[in-house]
Amino acid sequence: MNPPIEQSVVCTEQDRWLLGTLKTCEIVSTVPNDAIVHWEADGKTYCIRTSTADVDESVWTGDAKNNLCHFAGTSAAIWNIGGAFVKVKAWQKDMQLESDTIEFVNSISRIPTPEVIYCWVDAQWNRSFLVLKALEGETLYEAWGSLSDSQRTEIANTVAGFCDTLASSTSERLETAHGKAVQEPFLTPLALASDPSWKPRTFGPYSATQLQSMLSQYSVPAGQIDSFSFYHADLGPTNIIVSKDGSIAGVLDWESAAYYPKFWLGTKPLISAGFQVSGPEKKAWAYLLARSLENKGLSSDMGSFEAWQSAIRN
User: Which residues form the Aminoglycoside phosphotransferase domain (predicted)?
Assistant: First the structure.
């Protein structure tokens, strides 16, 4: 990407950040009239405004790591500014925005999600910006070693309950909450050699009939794709925030959430490295969650997954 994703947010002076080509974030003593949104943190007031001044391009080639707290390859980065996270992701036309997905989840469940402060698309730079209020607690990955077996089991059962609640929302198509293509690397065709590395890979939307035609030669059971269930699709330990008492304070990263074939709900934890925890039993969370999902009737099905991958990648 130009500039690279990790240079999407730059601190240009004390208490002021450029957020792509369109917005600025500032610490202010009084909220200005042109503030789009503002919030309080650590006794300070932060606001986001529309960027009106031309910015020298040299700004974007300097050190942009101030406040950078997460950087994933060429397509995602996160900054921590004023008790909020500024999440920047590669974007292309007609992609589902995570903020819209969070709004949908809040409308059909009581699953704790991060509060959306503001979001926008910087089409000039092919990336989306999402500002989220930070949740209190630590990730399950960080807390794992201090949790008892009973606490881990309770968390797994709670997360499986979240999945069961979301799965009650169904669709006749493989699609996002608002009818767009899904973003799930394991179920998506391989990228073309000509595609830039940052470009999001999407798949669909497809009806059950369309998918059945595609998968029939690989004997994927028809009953597995006659409808699709809503699923977070990335419930690894870094995306679950745990309070000091061991309860779940929130679930992060809803960008891949969509309507998937039912077999995927119980299978994903067993094949994704994103479900691993630290320590000698790296797959402890994956196995625990898969067992809790199975108790909810959301069993894994490796055969259907392998057949699916063979079909879409041949």
Answer: 111-261
